[in-house]
Write a structure and sequence with these properties.
Elements: E1 16-20, H1 25-36, E2 40-45, E3 52-54, H2 60-73, E4 80-83, H3 99-126, E5 129-133, H4 146-166, E6 171-176, E7 179-180, H5 186-191, E8 201-202, H6 204-216, E9 223-225, H7 228-239, H8 241-257, H9 268-274
Parallel strand pairs: 1-2, 1-4, 2-3, 4-5, 5-6, 6-9, 7-8
Helix pairs in contact: 1-6, 2-3, 3-4
Length: 284
C-alpha cells in the first residue's frame, strides 16, 4: 500500500508544470521529484532530452513556440511554472558591460520574463503559480560576481512586480538558494574567480525540496530560502545591507591576503586596490 503524501504536497498530483533549465542540475532533479509525486511535467532547455523541449530562452520565437508546445503536451492547461535556467559569469563591474554581462541579463532576467509572459494566459486561467529562482547573491554583492548579482536582483524585482500586477490570480514565489556546486560555476572557475569555499555551501537537494514544498503549499509563500542558514542570510542581507557590505569588505580583505584569486587575471584590479599580490604563477 502506498503511503499518503504529506499534507503540504497533496495538491501536486495531477497538476501540469513547465520547468526551465530542465536539463541542468536543479531542473532535472526537480522534474524527477515532481513526476514521482504525480505531476505532469514538460521541461524546456537549450539541451533537449526525453521530456525536455529544445528552447533558447533568449530567443523570442523559440520561447513562444516552446511554451506553446509544452502546454500542448500537457493537454492545454498549465498550473505551475518553475524557473531555473541561469548563467553565472565572473566580471569586473568597473569595466564596460561585455558579452558575459549581456548573457547574464538575457538568460537570468529576460529569459525568465519571456517564458513567464508566454505562459501567463494559461496560468491566469488556472489560477496557477510561478516560482522564480533568484539567489542569495541578489542581496550579497560579492566582488567579481556583479553580472550575476545584478541580474538576480533584477529578477527578484521582476518577481515582486509580477506579484503586484498578477498576484490576485497567479501565485508568485521567489526562491533564494545559496552556493550549490553545479555546472553554473564552471565559467567562474575557469577565470580563477570561483566562489568555492568563499560562501557557505548548500546541497542540490536543499534547493529542490524547498521549491517542491513551495509548489505544494496551500498558499504560495512570498519568498523562500533553501536552508535555515540561508533564511538567516536572506534576512540579514535584505534588512541590514550596510552590515552585509561591512562583512563582505572584511572577508574580501582576508581572502586577498590569503591568496584567494591570486592567479585570476580578472582580479588584478582588486589586488592593486587592496595592496595585495597578483601572482599568476604563484600556485603553479
Amino acid at each position: 500500500m502506498t503511503a499518503p503524501l504529506p499534507r503540504h504536497l497533496r495538491r501536486l498530483p495531477g497538476q501540469n508544470a513547465i520547468v526551465t533549465g530542465a536539463s541542468g542540475a536543479f531542473g532535472s532533479a526537480t522534474v524527477a521529484v515532481l513526476r514521482h509525486l504525480g505531476v505532469n511535467v514538460v521541461g524546456i532547455d537549450r539541451k533537449p532530452a526525453p521530456g525536455v523541449i529544445a528552447c533558447d530562452i533568449t530567443d523570442d520565437r523559440q520561447v513562444r513556440e516552446g511554451v506553446a508546445e509544452a502546454v500542448e503536451r500537457l493537454g492545454g492547461d498549465l498550473d505551475l511554472l518553475i524557473h531555473y535556467a541561469g548563467v553565472g559569469p565572473s566580471v569586473d563591474i568597473g569595466h564596460p558591460p561585455d558579452a558575459h554581462v549581456h548573457q547574464a541579463l538575457e538568460v537570468n532576467l529576460l529569459g525568465a520574463w519571456r517564458v513567464t509572459a508566454a505562459a501567463m494566459p494559461h496560468l491566469v486561467r488556472t489560477r496557477g503559480r510561478v516560482i522564480v529562482t533568484s539567489s542569495l547573491l541578489a542581496h550579497l554583492p560579492l566582488p567579481l560576481a556583479g553580472a550575476y548579482t545584478v541580474s538576480k536582483r533584477a529578477l527578484s524585482a521582476f518577481s515582486d512586480c509580477l506579484r503586484a500586477e498578477y498576484g490576485t490570480h497567479v501565485g508568485v514565489t521567489t526562491a533564494y538558494p545559496g552556493f550549490v556546486d553545479t555546472p553554473i560555476h564552471e565559467s567562474s572557475r575557469a577565470t580563477g574567480a570561483s566562489l568555492d569555499g568563499v560562501v557557505p555551501a548548500e546541497t542540490e537537494r536543499d534547493t529542490v525540496m524547498a521549491v517542491v514544498r513551495a509548489a505544494g503549499a496551500k498558499h504560495p509563500p512570498r519568498e523562500i530560502a533553501s536552508t535555515a542558514l540561508g533564511t538567516a542570510a536572506l534576512h540579514l542581507t535584505r534588512h541590514f545591507p550596510g552590515t552585509t557590505e561591512q562583512i563582505v569588505s572584511l572577508q574580501l580583505g582576508l581572502l586577498l591576503t590569503d591568496g584567494t584569486f591570486a592567479e585570476a587575471e580578472i582580479a588584478r584590479g582588486l589586488h592593486t586596490r587592496h595592496g595585495t599580490q597578483y601572482a599568476p604563477t604563484a600556485l603553479s
